[in-house]
Automatic annotation (TrEMBL):
Residues 186-256 form the SH3 domain. Residues 512-563 form a coiled coil. Transmembrane segments: none annotated. The gene is MPP4. It comes from the Eukaryota. This is MAGUK p55 scaffold protein 4. Belongs to the MAGUK family. Residues 369-558 form the Guanylate kinase-like domain.
Amino acid sequence: ELSLFCKRDVNGVGVLYDLLRSPWLQALLKVKPSLSARPVFLGEQCLQLASPSLCHVEIVENPSALLSAHDTVAQKDFEPILPPLPDNIPENEEAMRIVCLVKNKQPLGATIKRHEITGDIVVARVIHGGLADRSGLLYAGDKLVEVNGVSVEGLEPEQVIHILSLSQGTIMFKLIPVSERPVSNQTTLYVRAMADYWPLQDSAIPCADAGLPFKKGEILQIVDQNDVLWWQARQVSDLSACAGLIPSNHLLKRKQREFWWSQPFQPHVCLKSTICECKILQLPDDMQIDEKCVETVELVITCTHCLAFNIRYFLPFPAGFRRSMRLCRRKSQNSQQPCYARCPSSCYSVAAAPYEEVVRYQRHPTDRNRLIVLVGPSGVGVNELRRRLIGMNPHHFQSAVPHTTRAQKSYEENGREYHYVSKETFENMVYSHRMLEHGEYKGHLYGTSVDAVRTVLDEGKICIVDLEPRGIQMARTHELKPYIIFIKPPSMSCMRQSRKNARIITDYYVNMKFKEEDLQEMEDCAKKTEAQFGQFFDQVIVNDNLQEACVQLLSAVHQAQDEPQWVPATWICSDTQP
Ligand SMILES: Nc1ncnc2c1ncn2[C@@H]1O[C@H](COP(=O)(O)OP(=O)(O)OP(=O)(O)O)[C@@H](O)[C@H]1O
């Protein structure tokens, strides 16, 4: 594990943090006093765990060693009292092993199956960190002969499970050990789940109770990938827990695809997304725009047919106008049902990997600041928060100056309102993936470039941009290492209160109060955005009280720069930079 981190040049603090929290270190620290106080016999023939709670096992191979060990141990009183070994063990049962496990509230942590060829009941897998694993006595491939004195020959796995469920106290297995124990040469891997998973709803999982449910965005520690279909993992937020089964990368991808294709009407709708021509919604003709005396504001139009296209308009409006423009278009938008209303939430992620490998990263003080990306439904207060944050310390926080192909006006300065470039230059920037977002308005192109963000970062400042969720993918690069903050609306009742006096368009144009439908739209949009892009959010801030949200934003921005965070491994491994 450590060598893995070293190779990735991960900051030592993160490694130390993980190391100190690792369950095996905690366990070692716990048993150390007992180990120094009493001898533990560890040998090929006899293995007796002195731990009062677990188990004991004798391999009936060398009776004298067995007796000697037994005598020594028998002088001590251990709790709970384990049952005596059966005395009718035939001499030829050399490879037979008897394992007693003391049942507690925890599950046994092993699964069994019927061998496809021999029909024997065998241990299918031992769950990492579970009772059986900690005992070190059960291995995948061990053949069960008896459970609590009952022969399992001819029984179905379910019947064996039934016997186990009825047993109280200790469970005694008689088994034939697997001839070759699996050698685990796995390194621990950390991944971000890019999809939700509910084992209880998965009929294919070998044992639903052993499954680990997870939600997109959660960080998982993968401890076992021996099985091509079912991996074992733990939530990084609870590393002391025993691992659970999760579908492997390959399997989860297959499941996503199957689910996607099984949705009624959905395949043709989504297939369209790869071929459809974006139908750009036009601004209402009667909108009067005075381009003077206002700062730049982005107007975002997402194609209602295909979410793959995201057109962003940059208009010389005061901040806050973005929303008004959207409201004006609402009629035409509502007439077309958006793609995400008809697609399963996994629609977007169907082509993406279900797990993203991540590592703990902490920015070095001499490194460039991480890009801060704000995402949120229209009207939630993204612009307001950004404006306030920059206003707190304009020397430290800054937006990126957009590019445009429109002509420079007399009162404008190149590089202040916009970078004025030719259409050819702009298009070259788009083709060479140097635009985070771009769009067209009244025949002119507008866009935010990576160069503009880089300029802010190179000055040692923190660059704050707000992007439509579709733009997140473009920004997620090794160079920018964006920290994505989702600005979420509070509940409807809270919004009714907090937005009582808020205006969705500035005084300059229309001063409109939030209507009930505006709030509802905000809530719906937030839900959809979270469902579709939640896996990318590093932080979620609920914007109820503006002041509090602003404080939270400031703290999140500092956390992003100064505290260890999980980031995609490709951002750190220089040889695989995207
Ligand atoms: N927590 C809040 N309490 C009260 N009013 C708020 C709060 N947050 C934002 N507002 C107000 O709501 C209005 C819309 O906010 P803002 O313009 O920042 O939204 P936005 O998310 O940028 O939306 P759009 O993208 O459509 O511009 C503004 O008048 C703003 O002052």
